[in-house]
Amino acid sequence: MKKEEIIASLKDGLIVSCQAVPGEPHYMENITVKMAESAEWGGAVGIRANSPEDIEKIKRVVDLPIIGIWKIDRNIKDVYLTPNLDAAKKLWDAGAEIIAVQATKHKRDDGKYSYETIKEIKKEIPEALIFADIATPEDAVIAAENGADFVAPTLQGYTKAGYFDNVTIKDVPDFILLRDIVDAVKGTDTKVIMEGKVSTPEIAVQCLYMGAHAVVVGNAITRPHITAKRFARMLKRYHE
């Protein structure tokens, strides 16, 4: 599909984040492939997946656009999400139509800001769509100025530039942040994708009403242990 067709195909739809790492109770070989197949069967319009290896496997069996990310040195470096052009190229070669990059005011190993990866990709891989993972409305503005096709507040609470650190423990999205990001990129071609604590269909619809082009859901669909923990925590609060 052409870029415009992919953007249109995601409109008002569900993108499922299909990720698992060793140490999680549901981790097993090819689990992310089964997640992606289940998401497609259920009506998702896109997949978000981590690493060239997983993307290549998913692409063989699922006919949906893939937002490819590559988490490298997470919890070690400030810039860990597709941190450079080389990582982006490997995601593209694996089959990701959309490349997700960190676009915050953190510096890469080479001293450049993470959002500078956007222009590098646009120059070297002009066919790719770019998905900027951000933390603040200011990040969204910079990402849009650099040519990002999508922005999402994926990194709110995960970087030192978190928008409101005191709200990251809640079990609902930061709707104030979503509103401010939508306002920040208004008048540009950049689309807002809501990602983060979208735990019910009703919340997903609310995000669309607030201006999101689409929503990404991960924990509530593909990480049952996290969903169980959320329910258990809420019931404990009831007893308290």
TrEMBL record:
<dbReference type="InterPro" id="IPR011060">
    <property type="entry name" value="RibuloseP-bd_barrel"/>
</dbReference>
<keyword id="KW-0413">Isomerase</keyword>
<dbReference type="InterPro" id="IPR013785">
    <property type="entry name" value="Aldolase_TIM"/>
</dbReference>
<dbReference type="GO" id="GO:0005829">
    <property type="term" value="C:cytosol"/>
</dbReference>
<protein>
    <recommendedName>
        <fullName>N-acylglucosamine-6-phosphate 2-epimerase</fullName>
        <ecNumber>5.1.3.9</ecNumber>
    </recommendedName>
</protein>
<dbReference type="GO" id="GO:0047465">
    <property type="term" value="F:N-acylglucosamine-6-phosphate 2-epimerase activity"/>
</dbReference>
<dbReference type="GO" id="GO:0006053">
    <property type="term" value="P:N-acetylmannosamine catabolic process"/>
</dbReference>
<comment type="function">
    <text>Converts N-acetylmannosamine-6-phosphate (ManNAc-6-P) to N-acetylglucosamine-6-phosphate (GlcNAc-6-P).</text>
</comment>
<comment type="similarity">
    <text>Belongs to the NanE family.</text>
</comment>
<keyword id="KW-0119">Carbohydrate metabolism</keyword>
<dbReference type="InterPro" id="IPR007260">
    <property type="entry name" value="NanE"/>
</dbReference>
<comment type="pathway">
    <text>Amino-sugar metabolism; N-acetylneuraminate degradation; D-fructose 6-phosphate from N-acetylneuraminate: step 3/5.</text>
</comment>
<dbReference type="GO" id="GO:0019262">
    <property type="term" value="P:N-acetylneuraminate catabolic process"/>
</dbReference>
<dbReference type="Pfam" id="PF04131">
    <property type="entry name" value="NanE"/>
</dbReference>
